[in-house]
Amino acid sequence: MSADAIGEERRTSPVELLWDLVFVFAVTQVTALQSRDLSWGGLGRSMLVLALVWWAWSAFVWAANAQDTASPTLRLVLLLAMVLAFVAGLALPHSFEDEALAFAAAYAGVRFLHLALYADASRRGNASWAAIAGFAITVVIGMALLIAGALAGGTAQAVLWTAAAAIDYAGPAWLTRERLRGLQRVAVAHFAERYSLFVIICLGESIVAIGVGASEERFDAELVAGVGLGLLITVALWWTYFDRFASVAEERLRTHDDPVLAAADAYSYLHLVIVAGIILFAVGVKLAVHHVGAPLDDATRLALCGGVALYLLGHVAFRLRIVGSVGVEKLVAAGALFLLYAVGGDLAAWALAGAVTVILVAMCAYETVSARRGEPRRATA
Question: For residue 131, how far is the Cα from the chain centroid?
Answer without folding.
Answer: 24
